[in-house]
Design goal:
single chain, 251 residues, alpha/beta, TIM Barrel, 8-stranded parallel beta barrel, 11 helices, 8 strands, binds SN-glycerol-1-phosphate
Amino acid sequence: YQNILKSVLEKKKLLAVLIDPDKFPVERTDSFLLKVNASLATHIFVGGSTVDDFVTDILVSEIKKHSNLPVVLFPGDVTQITNKADALLFLSLISGRNPEYLIGKHVQAVSKLKGSNLEVVPTGYLLIEGGKVTAVERVTGEKPLSRTNVQDIVDTACAGHLLGMKLIYLEAGSGAKAPLTQRIISEVKKAVQLPIIVGGGIRSKAQLDAVYEAGADLAVIGTAFEQDELFFEDLKAPSSAEQLLKEDNND
Ligand code: 1GP
């Protein structure tokens, strides 16, 4: 969390590649992680809405063999908690009213977290209309917030802040038709003095830049990489020679 805060202060944008253990064949880890490591990615998020027991544990061990990026759990359920990751987004679905996803799963998680080294980061999670019914909606039974009622989104994020959440995650849902609008992101950013995570439906460099420009501190991309690894080419980290040239030009 301190690293995220530092990046926000330095105005450095962060990018998480989301790997869903339910969809990702573990044999692909090696080649996939080569591309992740050469890209602008700063974090690896691991999680999904429906994942079989122990699958996350095996996948995180494998990821750790092939990348030094921090691995952050983004769990759909308690079964996805593994001590092998670095941190856990302790997500509370504050856009919904289902007690299970506001506090119930968290109580269940406590026995799993005892003695664990995971850094637990309380995160206010807001599901917002993404143009289709998403897995989060199916699993939690919760309707997303309306895209057009921006004040409701802002008030929900502010309430999360007042409750002590350390991150706000604005979620359009995996595979959303379009990313969240710049207006939603910028209004939340203005109102809440916390790092803002934005995910769902980001499929191009232009969309990623728009999300950052609006105020997202950390963007999450899953589906676009799952469907086409060539997308990593658009998000390649500059080589050290290119980086030096850029810095010289800025001087
Ligand atoms: C989903 O925000 C993430 O929880 C990523 O969404 O799969 O659409 O990139 P995509």
